[in-house]
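EI: anyone free to look at a 395-residue chain?
SC: sure, send it
EI:
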Amino acid sequence: MQDTNLKRCGRKTVSGELVSWEIKKLWEMPVLWIFLVLCTIFNILLVTDSWHSTDYIAYVKEARKTAGSRMGKTFDEKVRSLADCAEKERLIQETAKAEDLFETYDPAQTAEMYIDRYQMTGWAADALSKKFEKQKPRIQTLARQDASMDAGAAGMTKPLMDLLFEKLCRAVLTEGLLLAVFSALYICGIERTERTWLTVYASKRGRRVQTDKFLAGLFYALTAYAVIAAVSCAAFACIWQLGDIWNTDVCTQFYYVTVMAAEIPFVTWIPFTMCSYLAAVLLSGMAVSAVFYILGYVTGLAVQNSYAGFIVLAAACALNFEAVLLAGNQAYWGFFEAAMWTPVMLWWMQPLWFTDMGMHAVVPWQECWVFLLCLTAAVSFLYLGFRYFDRKDLK
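SC: here you go
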């Protein structure tokens, strides 16, 4: 091992060779493989939740072929013409006399509800009102499109989307973030763990190995995330077999957000079907994983101890949650909204990405702005971390 490291430091090895070498180290790490397998198994078990409802889902899928996907008088008549069964009666009960909720929905009233119930004041309350005011053109578009009249999976739409977006996507993102941090801390500190850091980092080329390590770990983290997401979604698709239900508009009246016993429509800033929203969330989750990987690597460069680095990151996350809770409880709404602009809260708000995000956002598309801010900060810290490491004395 030492001879290999001497050769790596004694000549200018092609960067691609070093990246491949570091990727090999990660793929040969048993703990990461075990974690990857356990995550996949957990997600497969997760998507079997409420699997007994697959029969009703199958019936709705077939009924949509006859009655169409938009509720209304024609839809009701065609459903009633189907053969009698328990599933038919349930479908009629859930869809009969449906009305377009966006024809009467006023986002300004939703803003007032948030402000009154949480007693928000100051610029945070004003910003919240302005944000919902900007939602009105989108509401008018949804009303013209009859988006809320999409039958989806009828009464199973919310349980199904909650399972997919709140549980499965949250699980995939969380696992991806953990793998990203683990791989960053491991690949950054492996030379110290194996007691080869004096050999590897003694030369100027040796210090530049950190760049190759960074790229290798990033490739591994994103690949692992993609594997978990692909396997988990494939399992979901195989178990539920949604067919045309994948084309359900996520702004259907069957999918909503519950806030203090009030049902708030799930409104995205741009059109999304169930399938396209899933793709957008998973791709965004990969980007967020990259941010956490960079922060993990920066911590590794600064601390030079994988275990201590993980404790530092865990403590920072806990403090962020504590700050949000204390600010909300004490009605320090300016501090509360400021504390939402962090990678931790970006992860936490994943089920509401691309929506108004309720009281947790003060501008449209806030999750995207938070991501850009966090990415910019993370890259800046990474640059400073490399400079610090290049000048740091070896101990």
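EI: The mean pLDDT is 89.
SC: 👍
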